[in-house]
Amino acid sequence: MSRHPIQDRRLSTQPEVGPSPEITRLADCSAWMLQGACAPGARVLGLECERFAVGPDDRLLPYEGRVSIRTLLERLAARFGWQPVLEEGAIVGLTRAGGGITLEAAGQFEFSAPPFATVAEVAAAFRSHQEELTQVSADLGVRFLWAGYNPADHRPDTPVMPRDRYRLMRRNFPGDGRQGGAMLDFTCAVQVSLDFTDAADGLELIRLGHLLTPVLIALFANSSVAGGVDTGWRSWRGRLWPTVDPDRCGAPALVFDPAVTFDDLVAWAWDRSLYFLAEPAADGGSRYRMLDRPMTFRQYVEDGHRGRRATLADWALHLSTLYPDVRPRRQLELRVCDAVPPDAALALPAFVQGLCYDADARRRCLTLLRDGDRTIDRAALREAACRSALDAAWVDGPLREIAREVLRLAHTGVAAQGGDAVARTALEGLEAIVTGDRPPYWHTLAARWAATPSLYALAIPA
């Protein structure tokens, strides 16, 4: 069984260019994805955290200037051994020892921890990143806002990063692209990547992840304010995502079918439109190129484009532009959770470790969530969680009670794997929200915004 190199895990938006095997059939893509499978004892977790960088002028940091995104990246590279990632000469990210820092469309600052076997190790890497960020940002007065959606999204001064990927994505969004633009500019998430051991294990984890989506949205909901006002939704970000491009976002119906195969998933991805391709740039890096006509990936494989044939590098890039709630690549990416404060972000890998990496907890969770029940409207459950979080109704009772039981199973799974103390503590934070012993994230954010509608007041030092 092959083992993926560590750098494959980072959820990078830098495309690969250069020689790559040609794709001639659907099975080539399935085989490429299954090369990420690993032995049960070798499974690890990868954490990704996004947040908004805010300056003393109460605005998101621009790319250029003394108090800017570029300054933060250059200082991190100079002081802590990060290697710059360039796009047409502009620094747009950093990489070091399997971890990374990248920029989203409006300068959302994204940290990808190296993959580790335990939540404690992930926590140590995250803490080290926070300490480094404090050292490069404190004298500039920069603070960071941990929220799933920018509550001041009505402001006309949203910064633009020198990332061609996002410029081209806006041209591909359906309709007038407003929902897609809002997703790019105003959202932040906490995400986790996880391993699978073979095709059957991967498919079950994909199904479990989608079944858990309403619970995760409800627990991590932290985007109730948009346009400066309370939206009436606990997770405005969660509500927004399926509307960005319904053909490639949310939960495709096939993911809930226990009989689905890996080839079925690949076929779904093959029939989604291509956003763009990548090619070598003059500076030795890479650049994106729009297609001269709309086509699906399947059509690209069959017909090519301007004499170019589809390769596995093209396939990897295409997968990065698909946005199901659980994205399959060589690892699986759980993508539904709003960004939450840094002391709470570790709850997601703890949750995933307990439920996904312990066979008994996973089996019990699938049963609890009525796996395979075709009478349940999963899209409606997802929407209800976005609107009402833990106060939403589930199939046969309150979602809060389902969340309580899911967290109990997560604790059991963590204990069965050695009882990582950091993971236990992180899960206890979620339990306190379920029991009402602490307010949910969305409530705290909304109350603080109502008291002082200022990004800088809402943000905290690194």
State the gist of this model.
The protein is α+β, with helices and mostly antiparallel strands. The protein contains 18 helices and 15 strands.
How would you portray this structure in words?
This protein has 462 residues and is an alpha+beta fold. It has helices at 26-34, 69-80, 119-137, 164-172, 178-186, 199-220, 236-244, 262-270, 297-303, 312-319, 342-345, 347-356, 359-368, 378-388, 399-416, 421-435, 441-451, 455-458; strands at 45-54, 83-87, 90-96, 99-103, 109-112, 143-145, 189-194, 225-226, 229-230, 249-250, 277-280, 286-289, 323-324, 326-328, 332-338. The strands form four sheets. Strands 1, 2, 3, 4, 5, 6, 7, 14 and 15 form a nine-stranded antiparallel sheet that branches. A two-stranded antiparallel sheet has the order 8-9. A two-stranded parallel sheet has the order 10-13. α12 packs across α15. The protein is globular. It starts with 25 loop residues before the first helix and ends with a helix. The relative contact order is 0.16.
Helix/strand layout:
Elements lengths: L25 H9 L10 E10 L14 H12 L2 E5 L2 E7 L2 E5 L5 E4 L6 H19 L5 E3 L18 H9 L5 H9 L2 E6 L4 H22 L4 E2 L2 E2 L5 H9 L4 E2 L11 H9 L6 E4 L5 E4 L7 H7 L8 H8 L3 E2 L1 E3 L3 E7 L3 H4 L1 H10 L2 H10 L9 H11 L10 H18 L4 H15 L5 H11 L3 H4 L4
Parallel strand pairs: 10-13
Antiparallel strand pairs: 1-5, 1-6, 1-7, 2-3, 3-4, 4-5, 7-15, 8-9, 11-12, 14-15
Helix pairs in contact: 1-8, 2-3, 5-7, 6-14, 6-15, 7-14, 12-15, 12-16, 13-15, 15-16
What can be said about the biggest beta sheet? 9 strands, antiparallel
- Count of distinct strands: 15
Indicate the mean pLDDT.
94
The tally of helices reads 18
The dominant shape is globular
The structural class is: alpha+beta
Rounded to the nearest angstrom, the radius of gyration is: 21 Å
Helicity, as a percent range: 40-55%
User: Terminal Cα separation, in Å?
Assistant: 41 Å
Subunit arrangement of the protein: single chain
Uncertain stretches of 5 or more adjacent residues: 1-12
Strand content: 5-15%
